[in-house]
Amino acid sequence: PYALYHCLREKGPIIWDKQLNCWTILGYRAAMSVLHDSHFSAQVFHDDLSEATQSLQDQYAPLLSILSHMMFLQDPPHHTRLRGLVARAFTPRNIEAMRTQIRQSTQQLLEKAHVEKHLDVLHDFAFQVPMKVIVDILGVPHEDSKFFLKWAHDLDALVQEVPLPLAERIPLLQSISECIDYFRRLIHRRQKLPQDNLLQILIRAEEQGDRLNKDELLGTCILLLVAGFLTTSHVISNSLYALLEHPSQMRLLRQHPDLLPQAVTELLRYDSPIHEVARRATCDLHLQGQQIGAGAQVIISLGAANHDPEQFPHPDHLDVLRAENRPLSFGHGIHYCLGASLARMEIEIALETLLQHLHNPVIEEAEWESGRALHGLRKFSLSFD
Ligand code: HEM
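Output (structure tokens, whole complex):
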């Protein structure tokens, strides 16, 4: 996509997309301004069921209401309240406490691959690491994680860039309804869940009535599933792929593992899974010479901003030693990713373990996902010595 971004950016950092009827922000500085500006609202959710019959609309209205209550689609004060509650699970102490367990599980995952000298990077590793983490944070039974992969993929497909025809959306909506029913059942038998995990914190807040309603509780469970799982999986696999394509950078990291934290920043800039976030202008605004009308939809291309040559010299080069590197991969402003430190830790540990274990890796198969909301590989396997 990066060649296309450069081509579009020649028209300016902010362009009008006639086809989609919205503004697209391609420049880094403009993207920062929009994400920082409270005149842009995050309430952009609409699932266009207009082609649907009334009975379908009625059937899925509760589901759509739950999805619209996810915090990244909310403005203050609702957003502030929801974020405050969920943030309790993401304190530096809580995150640090997960380090040993993440390290152990990444090591275990690679043991089997070691015997076979073959690794299905996505299914045997990149999906597994963040899945275990999110299951622990929420405090849901580990054996249920087998359902999470399908639900996360279905949500990703549902919100993809070009909306699917209705007939293809219905099975996805059905699948998300199952996910919601799953969390409903879990909340119902809450006594059996661990006491100090995020789900219990949220349930208690909901029971106290004024701090969280049922839709917000369910929306938050689903958000963590989508926001925390496939994103991190894709960064692990995209990063490994990028390093395999740049053997000198991979060698450098093997020799100097202490460079990993800054390498992760660069890998997040170079090829991150979330390429777009959306906002809506709440009033008429001027932005870098463009006039944005009240109500206009604005797509902020994080992928393009991260490759803006005005901000990042030689943006399409991977340079793990890059200085002054502040990509927008985790967003910016009040919606800045709540799981950023946790995700960085997971990615660092995952890459460190992969670099230790994979000797002379050779890509056997690699296929990119197309059209999904998240940018990443659909198939990726390796053999090694
Ligand atoms: C928000 C990216 C991992 C939880 C966001 C946003 C981005 C992002 C770009 C801002 C959305 C917006 O402005 O509209 C990523 C990437 C990840 C990652 C690239 C992996 C490398 C995680 C993890 C969690 C998480 C591991 C939690 C377990 C959240 C939450 C929000 C969010 C709750 C909403 C914050 C708010 O609206 O205030 N993420 N994320 N993310 N992320 Fe992440």
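The pocket of protoporphyrin IX containing FE is lined by residues 42, 71-72, 83, 86, 134, 223-224, 227-228, 231-232, 235, 272-274, 277, 329-331, 335, 337-339, 342-343 (CB under 6 Å).
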